Amino acid sequence: MTEPRDPQTPLPPLPEMPTDWKRALAVVAHPDDLEYGAAAAIAQWTDGGREVVYVLATRGEAGIDTVAPAECAPLREAEQRASAAVVGVSAVEFLDYRDGVVEYGLDLRRDIAAAIRRHRPELVVTMNHRDTWGGQAGGGFWNTPDHKAVGRATLDAAADAGNRWIFPELAEQGLEPWNGVRWVAVSGTTTPTHAVDAGPGMERAVKSLMEHKAYIEVLTDQDPEEYVRGFLGGYAEQAAARFGGRPAVLFEVFPR
pTM for this structure? Predict the structure, then answer.
């Protein structure tokens, strides 16, 4: 039986994320999901000549209480496209699942596997698929159903994409199997295995999250820039203890 970790014992340092790849696909549930954690890393990746594509399960239409979904969806889509452009991402796709009620299942796995076959990435990025945002000792805030469903389906779809006998209808649509995913990296995890230096991309990460103006305005009474810098900078600085003192973006990397 594994002994519980002593909270006074420092956690081991984290290695850098792999960099020997050219194409990544980021799959998340909502507009702003990537901006709240991974954008500084994505900015650095695109600066290095790597291609990153975003796929979002929903348009985030249930995210603003004061704006009806029919009006909110195009607003949040436009903000997401502007946000992605700040960190060098020009391709943003939406799967058009209904915000707030995304369910894990075969349809979701198939649609994400189709995106993986279409874009043929070596790295797939997604968001926390676990029940909570808790710390190393457990507890913490409950995660949303959409995050859990999309994160888990993405981990599964990375394998589905390479198996021609799972979802054979995709090959009939011209999407041949892709077995080239080498890693799935989960952001927002409480059990990270790797890190990316947040310094070079932090300013663009801040600007990228600030493009979600309508969402942030109803989320906080703080000055938007103060809120964004405090949130992103705080997490990056907290991660520095495990990355040689450098502010970092943390990922849990699952090799394939």
Answer: 0.94
